[in-house]
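Person: Please work through this fold.
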Amino acid sequence: MPELPEVETVRAGLEKHVVGKKITAIKQLHPRALRSDSLNKLSIFKGAKIKAVKRRGKFMWLEFDRPEVLVAHLGMSGQFKIQKSNSEFEKHLRANFALSNGKEMRFIDQRTFGWLAVDQIEDGVPSLVSHIARDLFDPKFDKKNTVSKISGKRGQIKKVILDQTVLSGIGNIYADEALWYAQIHPEAIAE
């Protein structure tokens, strides 16, 4: 599963190609591309101008010149690609967004664990992301508070640092590597 650094790489790549562009057409090609609790259909973004691409932990969202945002979670195999218009669709294309520059932003997901959703911003983040803790790249990340949260837990340290409400963006790979580097057994109690 993509973790914080991989999702940040996707976010930064999308930002270069889509900010300032309008969405001219949208095709949802798989029913599971859109999360069931989405506030609306993807078609709500037709004609919208993309203002920003943001991220918290493993979640990413596009902000528009309207109140709704497009939230994305890549799941296990989700990805975004920028392609030339009318180029051949990828085998596992789930949603396609035509852009005003003649290109397309494509959401591709082989294993269909990723999803898109229409949502609204609450306190600077989409409501679907509001329960997620700040991540290490967030300028408002509070190291002291996060360490306090971790040390106050009675569970195994690996499970605690995988808890996205404690510290977001960390998955199995980075948890294992960080604990190995720190010489902490993953089953050690966090407190």
Notes: The chain has a mean pLDDT of 96. The two ends are 27 Å apart (CA to CA). The chain is about 20% helix and 30% strand.
